[in-house]
Amino acid sequence: MEEGRKLQRITRTAKDPIKLRRAIVVMMSGQGQSVRDITSLMQVSDDYVRDVIHAFNERGFDALDPKWSGGRPPAISSRVREHICLIAKTVPSEWGITGHSTWSLKTLAEHLIARGVVAAISREHLRRILRRGGVSWQTTTTWKASNDPQFIAKMQRVLELYDHPPEGGRVVCVDEFGPLNLMPRTGKRWRPVGSPARLRATYNRYHGVMHMIAALDLATGKLYYRIRRRKRWREYLSFLKTLRARWPGQKLYVIADNYSPHKHPEVRAWAAGNDIELVFLPTYGSWLNWIESEFAALRYYALNGTDHRTHDEQNAAIAGYMRWRNARTAPKTNFAASSPIRSWTSYPAKVA
């Protein structure tokens, strides 16, 4: 009786089709059905039914589990597989092949056969080898190295301000965001399967563009911003004056990139006379500016997937996001805590 209940439980829960079929055969035999009835219902041979029943009588429930064999040895050795992955990571021109800037599965297979790496290989087999070897089809990206001879010193200065804000001072990251065009922006949203939201494909820019200048206060994590028609040094200086008025009596450490309005003589002179230290990032080092990640979130949540027809409408959407964000923010700490940049003593030859 106990075996019968266990067999019945297996027939309801077994996910392996072989184990399920064997359990049904044993249960039907235990119910007194003949071998012919079992073979007719299960569409198996008489020998299969008898083998399953005999094995169950000898080994019990262990006989229901399939015993997979190792199968035939792979036709392509692990050493050859590694060699294939190495070749796939090259480009055809490195092998003297013209007319192709990248490998397709077909051209790579033909090249492997022509060079005697393998005798024959299908595109599907090649795809599986590359996948198991950690080689995938990816879009080419670009990178720009810094030519700043003081890169390490400037980077370490910025990281020191992030890690240990000076007593009686406030660290603020400032940058421009834009241009804010009036145009359809692709994005993502929840929709019924196969029914994506659609935006107009053609548009006119009759109303010009706007620009945002924003500051990230690391002590609170809040964003402060202004939207203006231009982004000259005058607008930048005006924004610095609003920051100065917001935190009177505290020295401001303003981290910014090397955009020319940030270094305008009028800006430098006013900052020096109003207890503001301008901390400039290394050349091509804007990724060190903490506000960049906040701009990415702003673009994703407030602008992507929208089609604002007026600047007032778009500005209202940005303002709504800013209010929502600032109500939920926290102090900014641990910038790139586990990043390799923390151990740099010299600028690497290549930075993604």
TrEMBL record:
Domain Tc1-like transposase DDE, chain residue ranges per copy: 170-312
GO molecular function list: nucleic acid binding
**Domain of life from the UniProt record:** Bacteria
The signal peptide here is none
Which Pfam families does the record associate with it? Answer: DDE_3 (PF13358), HTH_32 (PF13565)
Q: Which NCBIfam families match?
A: transpos_IS630
Its protein name is IS630 family transposase
Biological source species? Planotetraspora phitsanulokensis
